[in-house]
Amino acid sequence: MFTGIIEETGSVEGIRKGAHSSVLTIRAREILSGTRQGDSIAVNGVCLTVTSLGSGSFTADVMHETLNRSSLGQLNAGSLVNLERAMAADGRFGGHIVSGHIDGTGTIANIQKDDNAVWYTVCAPEKLMRYIIEKGSIAIDGISLTVASVTKTSFRVSVIPHTASHTTLSGRKPGDIVNLENDCIGKYVERLLAFDQSDSRISREFLGKYGFL
């Protein structure tokens, strides 16, 4: 489990590609402190398992399903990536609940400066947009952000200078593909409502009455 608060940006040192998978070697500094083989690290929002540790780097396997669902397959040697270790139980929860399981990808449609902030407009398919709500949370490449506005095909976020400069967002441009993870709460609510409610006190009307819909 992650919070979407990026600890540092690392760089891809090497990629060993298989038929339908790959092994990433990523250079890092801060996140290696206390990290052991088998630990989880979010790379651009994708939860990966550390398979080995080197001097200033770690490796992780990326399976076929992950390459299909995320933008990790587009990484090259030298690419910058957002890094976050799994959430510690004694730490501050500064973002929102991020699982590291990517729902799909979106495309940056527009970037616009607004005084000290930067607006990013991201287009996404309907299957992702249905869970994105104004003032809700979204993880873009693993970064916990608040949705400012929503249309049928896109959403906008406003990013402060600190977030842009401490993540890969500062290097993004229109047309770039980004990993998206929806807030998990909406997905669970939808799934539960799909089941037979005849023996349950929880219904669509009940949730609406108390402000959940």
**Which structural class do you get from the secondary structure elements?**
mainly beta
Mean pLDDT: 92
Strand order of the largest sheet: 1-2-5-4-3-6
Number of helices: 5
Please count the beta strands (DSSP E, at least 2 residues each): 12
Give the termini separation: 26 Å
Major sheet attributes? 6 strands, antiparallel, barrel
Layout of helices and strands, plus pairs?
Blueprint: E1 8-17, E2 22-27, E3 40-43, E4 46-54, E5 57-62, H1 64-69, E6 80-85, E7 104-114, E8 117-123, H2 126-129, E9 137-140, E10 143-150, E11 154-159, H3 161-165, E12 177-182, H4 184-193, H5 204-209
Antiparallel strand pairs: 1-2, 1-6, 2-5, 3-4, 3-6, 4-5, 7-8, 7-12, 8-11, 9-10, 9-12, 10-11
